[in-house]
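Lab notebook page, bench 4
Experiment: in silico fold of construct C2
Operator: M.H.
Input chain length: 94 residues
Purpose: comparison with the prior construct
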Amino acid sequence: MGIFTTLAALTSAQVNVPDGSANGVLATGLNILYFVAGIFAVIVIIIAAFTLVTNNGDPSALTKARNAIIYAVIGIVVIIAAFTVTWFVIGRVG
């Protein structure tokens, strides 16, 4: 029983339990989401660039690869804009 009374007496600062505010949890979740979306966009750009280089003169593959690169770059711009807006809003509220 001695271990349980010792653990019960410890404060959250002594056991390094993080303080979980709503803004902190939201910011962390959104940052993870932005990171995953950014990685996905970069992977799409890499695959589309590989397709662009190895299309062997096929015009439809060339168009698909160019469109994929354009849409992925637009996606990255949207991700950066969303990150900026949420950083500004969470920074103002918190």
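Observations: DSSP finds three helices and no strands in the chain. The radius of gyration is 23 Å.
Next step: discuss at group meeting.
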